[in-house]
Amino acid sequence: MTTAIETVRQRLASFPRVRLTHLPTPLEPMDSLSRELGGVQLHIKRDDQTGLAFGGNKARKLEFIMADVLRKRADTVVTWAGVQSNWCRQTAAAAARLGLRAVLVLLKKPTSAIVFDGNLLLDQVFGAEIRVVESEGERNFLELGGVEDLVAPVVEEERAAGHQVYLAPVGGSIPEGSMDVPLGAFGYVEAFLELFEQAQELGLPLDTVILATGSAGTQAGLLVGAKLVSPQTRVVGISVAGEAPQVSEYVRAIADRVLEELGSSERVAEDEVTVLDEYLGEGYGMMNQGVADAIRMTARQEGVLLDPVYTGKSMSGLIDLVRKGKVGAGESVVFLHTGGTPALFPYREEIVSLIEGE
Ligand SMILES: *Cc1c(COP(=O)(O)O)cnc(C)c1O
User: Fold this and answer.
1) 136: pLDDT strictly greater than 90
2) 3-class DSSP assignment, residue 313
3) pTM of the predicted model, to two decimals?
């Protein structure tokens, strides 16, 4: 008899893939933080340890995406994001490993300075070509449509210079540009299977998985994995970039495309997607006291580093949900650590001023 897991694995195996990660990542208890919060059984899935260039969730995605780049015989990967992008750093590393060029269109606010620190420093070390562009106001950079005026000229320029360009969407999530299938999310369907098996080995029920959600591909992949092998598991996305209705719609749409590509007739209903935007604070990349408290508690209770943009925010959400009783006592919760720790350094000022010694 073939199990649901084997069926999904076989489907995933029909897509080309290059090895970039160290898997499986550990699933570890957070006993001290669980005690501190009272009653919740907390584990952490260490995807900050995926192994590519300081780790993070983009490594799993890039295994499928870079295989598509190679299959399409591109020699140059063009992508875009904010200046301190984890996606761009891991893309630059993957390109270096595979002998490809990476051209990064980095969106900068007119008021912020360019400092070679954190991810931007690492982009440079990996030899990526960096094109900083000024982007005013509130752009929706999760969709190509929101940044096309900034990205298209770079693609044109690369083509004119004789390069075979692969335009990869921000975060490797929404199927756009040269990526016509949501390949990034495939990495997180597989990650869910990996997590499910690890939980089974520990005899751990998988009630709730909590993660930071940005371009929605990670949550979409996990949601598909859960739907196919563990429908009782709730996947909760803490939005770090957009408002809940829009991010939920991205998650749902990507998940449906993944299901379709995997040959499943299942589809995701609107009410099956949980995205919370009440921890967004002032918006993407804006730290606040809750984030600082989450970073401090996790560091000092567990010896684990979170980041100021993604995992600090999702942990601040998790802590608040437990305190408000929305994540229940005795419930088994897995916090997905999606990486991002290189951004700790460029945020030094905010961190120092918000994390008091205690
Ligand atoms: C990109 C990123 C996320 C969000 O993943 P999406 O698939 O874009 O939603 C979460 N955490 C970190 C550290 C990231 O770099």
Assistant:
1) no
2) helix
3) 0.98
